[in-house]
Amino acid sequence: xxxxxxxxxxxxxxxxxxxxxxxxxxxxxxxxxxxxxxxxxxxxxxxxxxxxxxxxxxxxxxxxxxxxxxxxxxxxxxxxxxxxxxxxxxxxxxxxxxxxxxxxxxxxxxxxxxxxxxxxxxxxxxxxxxxxxxxxxxxxxxxxxxxxxxxxxxxxxxxxxxxxxxxxxxxxxxxxxxxxxxxxxxxxxxxxxxxxxxxxxxxxxxxxxxxxxxxxxxxxxxxxxxxxxxxxxxxxxxxxxxxxxxxxxxxxxxxxxxxxxxxxxxxxxxxxxxxxxxxxxxxxxxxxx
Length: 289
Ligand SMILES: [Zn+2]
Known about the structure:
The protein is of the alpha/beta class. It has helices spanning about 5-15, 20-25, 65-80, 100-105, 110-135, 160, 165-170, 175, 180-185, 190-195, 200-210, 235-240, 255-260, 260-285; strands spanning about 25-30, 35-40, 85-90, 135-145, 150-155, 215, 245-255. The longest helix has 25 residues, at about 110-135.
């Protein structure tokens, strides 16, 4: 790399580090477990010095930050360690970390610095997990308001593609290679269809604990005209589709019975922490702790 180029990068990095409020805008909590949580849309901060985003989705995912905080506590209680966590405290009208930089920040320098801190921190957490544990899992925590109030799990498989039968899905190696769990599929003793919608898929494990999911053993695909979020920038950038051994799942939480009250948030956090313990043993072949 040419020296001038290196200097430019260092100067940009230094100016990002000096952006006022950056550490408050993007909270980074180091962890010990082979698990990373990213929470891009739960923030409510609207600093005056940041421009409002002019296009794209700007509504926040209410209560996803307290939900993630409870999940951190329940993981600690059950598995004796903390996940890494990267939380945007900025309102989505100021920054959308779950989009590529241009749409995410729409030219605002403070938002761009926050976007870089979010994704640099997420990648650093993935690298630390790979170094310490060899592999891991990233959960990108969201909230949705679709009519069918299920937990939607996104693996970068479109709703239309989920309509394939199990045998067809298992044979589609090209599709499997473009999912955010590409590496986990190689590790799991179960076939791909079982991994995404079998009894011990994340959807299956959560349903067993009382939370309806998609995909899952009871709902293989979204059906006709139904909303379903299959995963976006975060799981594309940090999952195992393009590189590495950290796989990623977008976890879209419904409002009813999951995000609506602190009691429901706690019950879901417990169910998810329990499910992850089984999930690691079954598919990664190791305990989460
Ligand atoms: Zn979201």
